[in-house]
Amino acid sequence: MSSVRAVKVRDCVIGGPELVVMAGPCAVESREQIFETAEVVAASGARFLRGGAFKVRTSPSAFQGLGGDGWKLLREAADANGLLTVSEILGEEQIDGARRYVDFAQIGSRNMQNIPLLRSLGRSRMPVMLKRGFGCTIDEWIHAAEYVLGEGNEAVVMCERGIRTFETATRFTLDVAAVPIAKKRLGLPVVVDPSHAAGSREWVECLTLAGVACGGDGLLIETHPEPAKALSDGPQAVVLSDFPALVEKARRVAHAVGRSIPSGARLEAAAS
Ligand code: PEP
Ligand code: MN
Description:
Layout: E1 7-9, E2 12-14, E3 20-24, H1 31-43, E4 48-50, H2 68-80, E5 84-88, H3 95-98, E6 104-107, H4 115-124, E7 128-131, H5 138-150, E8 156-160, H6 178-186, E9 190-192, H7 194-198, H8 204-213, E10 218-224, E11 238-239, H9 243-256, H10 264-271
Parallel strand pairs: 3-4, 3-10, 4-5, 5-6, 6-7, 7-8, 8-9, 9-10, 10-11
Antiparallel strand pairs: 1-2
Helix pairs in contact: 1-2, 4-5, 8-9
This protein binds phosphoenolpyruvate and manganese (II) ion (MN).
């Protein structure tokens, strides 16, 4: 498998021998929800707490996120559990406000070709996770990354999250081949998001394991304490109490392909 230039987000290296697990709800909904989630994912070995504060929803009548208050809660919950934060930035005007709260700026699938946003994040020097547009080729995805890199920002990580195909049994089709191809062509780490590809929690586990096996440098997984009550993407959220076992399975596949996923306990020991 091709080696990549590792990207550092604060003290976390993405693209090294250790896979980086990022997990949390689709959207930050409440203090209780995000704190409970942070505790469980940190104990399972995750390095990042994910959670959208500004959501891009297909329908304008769907929950749009808690906005700035969501970012504050995400930061507090992450800090309390030794985690970093990853959250979507929707527009150029949000970059300055995001800096205190967001360690890793997610560019969403629907924004992959928002060239002004790509350039602004490039100039901002914030580490960027660039999700693949669900209707975009690997070439187009790589060119989008070049807009960020072209402004002098080398901290770019790609994220394969599934593309639209004729298949309707899953929400999107996880393009596993895109992972080694993008790694080879761009020389940057690629993270796999099994959740948005699956669309249903039933398929998240197998896509997680496939994401590790095909060379993913990290995983971005949606989890919720009570998915039935989730305000967005509930059907694909892994039940929080099932999350530790999922990471344990991913850890076994990681070992099989010569990688590792740190355990939460080891991180706690390092912090004390
Ligand atoms: C998300 O991560 O919740 C999200 C909206 O993802 P995507 O942009 O891949 O649809
Ligand atoms: Mn989501």
